[in-house]
Amino acid sequence: MGLLDRAGARLTARPEEADILVVNTCSFIDTAKQESVDTILEMARYKTLGRAKKLIVAGCLVERYRDEIRKNIPEVDAVVGTGELESILEAAGIAPAPAAVPSPFTILTSAEKGSRAEGNRRERSGRFRRDEWAGASHLLPTYLYDETTPRLVSTPRASAYIKIAEGCDHPCTFCVIPNLRGKFRSRRFESVVAEAQQLVARGVQEITLIGQDTTCYGEDLGLRDGLATLLDTLAHIDGLRWLRFLYAYPNRITGRLLDTIAKHDNICKYLDLPLQHASPSVLKRMKRGAGAEIFLKTLEKVREAVQQIALRTSFIVGFPGESLRDFELLEEFVSEAKFDWLGVFNYSDEEGSGAHALDAKVPKRTIESRRLRLMKLQQTISRRAKQEWVGRELLLLAEGESAETPLLWEGRTQYHAPEIDGKVYINDFGSLPSLEAGRFYRAQITEAHDYDLVARIVAPEN
Ligand code: SF4
User: Fold this and answer.
1) pLDDT tens, position by position, 426-444
2) In this predicted model, what pLDDT tens digit does every residue of 164-195 receive, in sequence order?
3) What pLDDT, on the 0 to 100 scale, is given for residue 106?
4) 110 pLDDT exceeds 50?
5) What do you get for the CA distance between the two ends of the chain, in Å?
6) How far apart are CA 175 and CA 168, in angstroms?
7) Cβ proximity of 450 and 342 under 8 Å
8) Mutate to test the pocket of ligand 1, among 27, 122, 172, 215 (most ligand atoms within 8 A of CB)
9) Which of the residues 26, 209, 393, 461 could staple to 245 if both were Cys, CB 3.0 to 4.6 A apart?
10) What distance in Å separates the CA atoms of residue 279 and residue 416, rounded to the nearest whole number?
11) Mutate which of 213, 215, 216, 345 for ligand 1 pocket (most atoms within 8 A of beta carbon)
12) What are phi and psi of 224, to 5 degrees?
């Protein structure tokens, strides 16, 4: 969006008004592919019904099905993979930016870029190959954006994401993200800090650091505890009220990282730690290792180091060979671990993943019933835990009127990451006539439901 904007395009979110339609896609599991294809087909209709002249498909679906998209959906005029973002201008038929403007991407040559021994080893063993994807290019993306890349922030005014690294070197057998996104590579430390400073200067007060694996940040640059060092530096930016990171890898939670979270008031007491399973035998086949016992020790360490930290995790149910006993082990673990937030995903059998070749596939109906069973268990755990929130006074970011009813507003605390966790509904503005979206308030939790909370405003926060 930033590139198109800088080149003079006017952006609209209304497809019926657009001359050029761009569908940004995802393709790491079946449901994501389906949603992407449905959206492409829906947008294709605007070429006959609306004024659109061009339909461009961008993103991960292109990395996986480059030729197939063009062959099977003739309405598509151009495709743009995740490593060739600059070509969006050519695809849109808009002149590229003047040569005087620096290249918006840091394309790293192999000599320039650091690399992790783990990633190099995995590359030699074929981890990133796309041979099973007919029609995909064999070239992996290598680009990284930097602080000079033009960017339009599409999240609400007070919040922004910063991607600190791209790609992933882990061998998880259910996952094709490394095949889509390439080897792990970190953005330069100074570039991330500069971008955060720019965002805060523009009014952003909450920054969420993302990457396929944020906890590896800096390893390829020779940094030790790179994420902790980065958080420590960013936490000193004046005006940055909330800072958090997502997608931590369980065995990379260092003491230094936890101490850094505990040390700074503006680092959210929140940890997203996708564990994927708890049965040691399933985790072994997933090539992730560990198990319930080790995870419980990790959670104990986290909770000891950072008081009142909110923990999110996600699991995959129905991985090939998952027995009823494996699933029960997962349930026992969930009962004991008591996560604040939990997501459960059905195993998706992806071509190109290590697990695709495994026997003992679990029937789809069993997978779905296990997902429902686990969510039901978490619902009970969550309902009890949320009751303990009642009466607490917390800092709340007001996000706007509730999508469900104009009688309520919605907000988030530091324990809620944008878009993924439960909601806080505001039904009482206290002495204020109205609230302002993107502003922080002190609020008291007055009611708790299974996942959501209800709050009343106490006072605006300066
Ligand atoms: S760490 Fe995450 S992105 Fe990387 S291979 Fe495993 S599941 Fe996929």
Assistant:
1) 999 999 999 999 999 999 9
2) 999 999 999 999 999 999 999 999 999 999 99
3) 46
4) no
5) 33
6) 10
7) no
8) 172
9) 209
10) 28
11) 213
12) -95, 135
At 207, list the tokens.
Answer: 């920054």
| Spacing, Cα 61 to ligand 1 middle (Å) | 18
Cβ neighbours of residue 372 closer than 8 Å, sequence gap 6 or more: none
Say yes or no: CB of residue 172 within 6 Å of ligand 1.
yes
Q: Among 128-132, 218-222, 268-272, name the one with the lowest average pLDDT.
A: 128-132
Task: Tell me which residue of 284, 292, 225 sits closest to 254, measured CA to CA.
Answer: 225
Is 78 a residue whose pLDDT tops 90? yes
Is the shortest distance between the CB of 453 and ligand 1 below 6 Å?
A: no
What pLDDT score does 205 carry?
97
pLDDT at position 96, please?
Answer: 58
Tell me the two tokens of residue 329: 């082990």
Q: How distant, in Å, are the alpha carbons of 275, 295, 343, 362 from that of 324?
A: 19, 20, 20, 10
Task: Label residue 229 exposed, middle or buried (CB < 10 Å: 0-12, 13-18, 19+).
Answer: middle
CB–CB of 393/420 below 8 Å? no
Q: Which atom of ligand 1 is nearest to the CA of 276?
A: 7
Tokens at 157, concatenated: 């005014």
User: If DSSP codes are grouped into helix, strand and coil, which group holds residue 440?
Assistant: strand
- Give kind and range of the element (H or E) at residue 385: helix 364-387
DSSP string across 152-199: ---S-TTEEEEE-EE------TT--HHHHH-S-EEPPHHHHHHHHHHH
- Regarding the beta carbon of 166 and ligand 1, being less than 6 Å apart is answered no
Higher-pLDDT residue of 274, 103: 274
